[in-house]
Fold this protein.
Amino acid sequence: MGKSTFPGGIHTYDGKDLTMDKPTTVLLPKGDLVFPMVQHLGAPAKPIVAKGDKVLVGQRIAEAGGFISAHVIASVSGTVKEIEKRLTVSGNMVESIVIENDNEYRTVDDFGKERDINKLTKEEIRSYVKEAGIVGLGGAGFPTHVKLTPKDDSKIDYVIVNGAECEPYLTSDYRMMLEEPEKIIGGLKIILRLFENAKGVIAIEDNKPEAIKKLRELTATENNIEVASVKTKYPQGGERQLVYAITGRKLNSKKLPADVGCVVDNVDTVIAIYNAVAKSTPLIRRIVTVSGDAVTNPQNFSVAIGIDYWEILEAAGGFTDRPEKMISGGPMMGIALYNCNVPVMKTSSALLGLKKDTAAVEESPCIRCGKCAEKCPLQLMPFQLAALANRNDDDGFVKSDGMECCGCGCCSYICPAKRSLSQSIMQTRNSIIGKRKKA
Amino acid sequence: MSDLFHVSAAPHNRSPITTKSIMQDVLLALIPAGIFGVYNFGINALTVIVVSIAACVLTEYLYCRFMKKSATIGDYSAVVTGLLLAYNLPSNFPIWMTIVGSVFAIVIVKMLFGGLGQNFMNPALAARVFLLISFPVRMTSFAVEKLTTPNTADYIKHGFVALDGVSGATPLAALKAGESVDLWKMLIGNTGGTIGETSAIAILIGAAYLLFRKVISLRIPLTYIISLAVFVLIFGGKGFDMTFVLGHILGGGLLLGAFFMATDYVTSPITRVGQIVFGISLGLLTGLFRLQGGSAEGVSYAIIFCNLLVPLIEKVTRQTSFGKERAVREK
């Protein structure tokens, strides 16, 4: 068993009280919806509609472009207006399908039809998950059907629902645990049907006692499902950290959780699995936390995937003050936006507007305080890796386990000299991955 | 372009702790020892402190000006060096010698190697050792004459230690000569010695603050002190004489060195295991120097010598990456 925590990690201002007690608001889109072909890890999806086509809610508009890839599903009914390159959160121009919303929300046949999960075979469950275009909604966007298809089902002994939500400001998972806990448990039961030897664990950080209480009540009679309270510390929700906290098993960058008998899925992903399998509803909505000190009414929204960030921001009352920084995702691993006219994607967990950009500081020399090495959840030596990275010593970088870095950002956060350690390390890591692919 | 927001790589938040705030914490923690030093040794001590700090800061400022580098004195590290150097000097140390020490610390030990973070020895201690070698007599003359009819002006000038007078010997020298020492006085600090090292209590108050603020951890100081105590207990030749062991812990520069100089980030190992190895090495060397060396003192030499071992210690005590032991099975 795990120790409910992991080595290293940081405590930071979490900003969760801005939104955690407000119910989720359903927001209907007004403008056009944009569906980029890259909303997941792996190969880009391929459009299967053409300009001028009519589409329905739940209709597949692009299909997976490889084994590790995912379908894209229309979240509204309307007309395909354009298929062109559009700016996405990543800052890249990505081929996207633009749909003009007719506001009628006409759906495909059998949309929302109930299924009896106890009668489904493993193959059916996996195919429904794949059809629904589900990817990890926690942020990485790894295609879920791939994750649910390990080499040997019988070797999986833990299915972990990741409700840690360790990123500051984010409360979307928390709200879902309070508002739709039955779906989480339902989704978990569906996953457990795939793995006959597995036990279900819903892992929640101990700063969310309400959610722990609620889920414990609802799972009191379930023998095979446990609600685990884990220590509040960033990055508790990281896959490697969570697997260790729950099972005591250690993962490195070369391994997937399935290699140590675990399947880890985020709360919202599990709800998406439930909707897809039990309710015939593909992945067309997601919960987005809109928060930060520059936002007038911080809260969570349930939105159609493809909606523009500006629309959500307007629904939250816009800005009280002009923010210095806008972030898609959490402050630790999110992506800064120079402009908010980008679509919500499957992986868009939050939109934050911060008055002050505390990362905009001058770097000063490393004083070798060692805090980065102490806080690194993977027990690396970030100051050394960053130095190796800055002098382009790829061999030294690999030898010093630089490729293990998960980019959690603890080192940059804690550094008193304000050095961009995480940035240097991730840049070099990604460039080495790129070089290996070419070779 | 004004309608665009800031962009940068993640993470987008930073801890409020900065190099400057850490240096300020160290300065704050050094204040009790300084106050006691001035109380004990009078205005002479204050003069040494002020001159040392001013010389360090000015030297660093001029060096940066002269070398056309951006000024680095804003990080307060030069102030810390100046203050620590002063604490390692006798109160009646000549001003010009203090300045020589400050310039040596900043220019030779720190800036020539690349400034803060690049120096391989603790600048203040390296300067102290330089002064010890250059001016051995002035560096070890702690004698304060007993005032027969003291008046207020004398107290201000020489401090309250002049009430009793101090012989040439510090408590540590007395221990070495086989004389008995007054532990109570050593705890409070009414003894001879350098400006900042005499009062164990004042140093411990500062150390407690640094521990509370998590600027330092106990790993280095505690292993240092314990290993010295064990060494002295075994090799001191006094059997199980607690006064002797405690005298070694409270006397000389041990506490000041263990909490404020051996813990210097730049010149101590980063890894946890490395810090313990470092602390033990310090304790053993200090014990060896004190018991077998020509001088009663050993802390400064032990620390700067161990500073040189840091790269080696770090090399053999790298922390193992998470999940690495299973990484061997590569496909």
Remarks:
- Confidence is low (pLDDT under 50) at residues 326-331 of chain B.
- The longest helix of chain B spans residues 43-66.
